[in-house]
Design a protein that fits this description.
This protein has helices spanning 3-8, 28-40, 55-58, 70-83, 105-115, 138-146, 162-172, 188-197, 208-225, 231-243, 249-256, 262-276, 290-298, and strands at residues 20-23, 45-50, 90-94, 119-123, 153-156, 176-178. It is built from 13 helices and six strands. A six-stranded parallel beta sheet has the order 1-2-3-4-5-6.
Length: 317
C-alpha cells in the first residue's frame, strides 16, 4: 500500500504500551522504509508478517508465501533490523509452512532469529489450511524446542477461551500467547486471562450493559478510522461480533444487511441492546446459527447446511 495509506492505518494509543506495528512486503528497501515510518510514529516493536494466508497477500508473494523463500525472508529481517534503532525489537510471525508437504517452521524460525528477530510467533496452521480445521500445537512445541531459550516464542491459533489458552501454553511450552480472532467481540477474554495469571477468580462473562458500552466504543472507533467505502462493512462485522450468542442476534444480523448508512446501522444496534436490557441475564440465545458463527469468526458468510443467509455477502477483511 502507499505510505500515506499505511500511516493512516496506525492508531497509536500511547496509554497502552507496547505499541506494535506489523508490516509486510517482499522488497527489503521498501520494508526498511516502512519500519522507519513505524518507528517515527512511535512504535516500540516492529513485527514482520510472514503468516498471512490471504490470497491478495500471497499472490504478491508476501505474507506466508515467504515461507517458501527463507533466504529472501531472512534478508527482509536483516534490512528492517538495520533500519531501526538498536533498542527497537524486530519480531516475526509465521505459520507452520506453506502446506503439509513443506512444514518448515523450526528451520524458518531459526533463520529469522539468525537474521535479527528478537521474538517469534507461530500460528499452528499451514498457509494451505487458511483458517480451516484446527491449529496444531505439537509443531509449535517443536519450534520452542529448537529455538534458543532466550528467544521468546508466542503461540497463536484457535485461542478463544481460558481453556484454549491453558492448553496452548501447556502443550507448546510457549512463553506467551497471541490472540486474534478469539478477541473479536470478546475483549473480556483478556481480563479472564489476567485473573488466571494472577491466581484470582475469573470475573466471568460481561453484563449486557458492559457489552453494549464496549460495542459503542468499538463502533465509534470504526466510524472514526474507517474509510467511507469500508465503514458500513466494518460496522456490520462489529455488530455481528458483539451480538453473537445473544437472543434474536440472528435476526439482528440479517437486518444489518438491509441498512444502507452507518447511522441506520448504529441505530439498529442501539435498539437491539435496548430491547434486551429488560431481560436481565436471560439474553443468551438457545443455539447459535451458522450465519452468526461464520460472521463472528470470519467477517463473512460461508456456506453451511441449513443456513438461510441473505443473498448479498460480505467481503472478508
Amino acid at each position: 500500500m502507499g505510505a500515506e495509506k499505511a500511516v493512516g492505518r496506525m492508531w497509536p494509543s500511547y496509554d497502552n504500551r507496547p505499541f506494535v506495528v506489523q508490516i509486510f512486503g517482499r522488497d527489503p528497501v521498501s520494508l526498511a522504509r516502512a519500519a522507519e515510518m513505524a518507528a517515527e510514529a512511535g512504535a516500540s516493536i516492529v513485527d514482520i508478517n510472514m503468516g498471512c494466508p490471504a490470497k491478495k497477500v500471497t499472490s504478491g508473494l508476501c505474507g506466508s508465501a515467504l515461507m517458501r523463500e527463507p533466504e529472501l525472508a531472512a534478508s527482509l529481517v536483516k534490512a528492517v533490523r538495520r533500519a531501526l534503532p538498536a533498542h527497537l525489537p524486530v519480531t516475526v510471525k509465521h505459520r507452520l509452512g506453506w502446506d503439509d508437504d513443506s512444514v518448515n517452521a523450526p528451520e524458518f524460525a531459526l533463520r529469522m532469529v539468525d537474521a535479527g528477530a528478537a521474538l517469534i510467533t507461530v500460528h499452528g496452521r499451514t498457509r494451505s489450511q487458511g483458517f480451516s480445521g484446527q491449529a496444531r500445537l505439537e509443531p509449535i512445541a517443536e519450534v520452542r524446542h529448537r529455538l534458543p531459550r532466550e528467544i521468546p516464542l508466542l503461540g497463536n491459533g484457535d485461542v478463544q477461551t481460558v481453556e484454549d489458552y491453558v492448553r496452548m501454553k501447556h502443550v507448546t511450552r510457549c512463553d506467551g500467547v497471541m490472540i486474534g480472532r478469539g478477541a473479536r467481540g470478546n475483549p473480556w477474554l483478556f481480563r479472564s486471562l489476567q485473573a488466571l495469571e494472577r491466581g484470582m477468580p475469573d470475573p466471568g462473562t460481561p453484563t449486557l450493559d458492559e457489552r453494549r458500552t464496549v460495542w459503542r466504543r468499538h463502533a465509534g472507533l470504526v466510524r472514526e478510522h474507517s474509510s467511507p467505502r469500508m465503514v458500513l462493512h466494518e460496522l456490520r462485522k462489529t455488530l455481528a461480533w458483539y451480538s453473537r450468542g445473544l437472543h434474536n442476534g440472528s435476526h439482528l444480523r440479517q437486518e444489518a444487511f438491509r441498512m444502507t448508512s452507518p447511522e441506520a446501522l448504529t441505530e439498529l444496534g442501539e435498539s437491539f441492546f435496548e430491547r434486551l436490557l429488560p431481560l436481565g441475564d436471560d439474553v443468551v440465545a438457545p443455539s447459535e446459527d451458522p450465519v452468526a458463527k461464520s460472521l463472528a469468526r470470519h467477517g463473512r458468510r460461508q456456506s453451511a447446511v441449513g443456513a438461510q443467509a441473505p443473498a448479498d455477502a460480505l467481503p472478508v477483511s
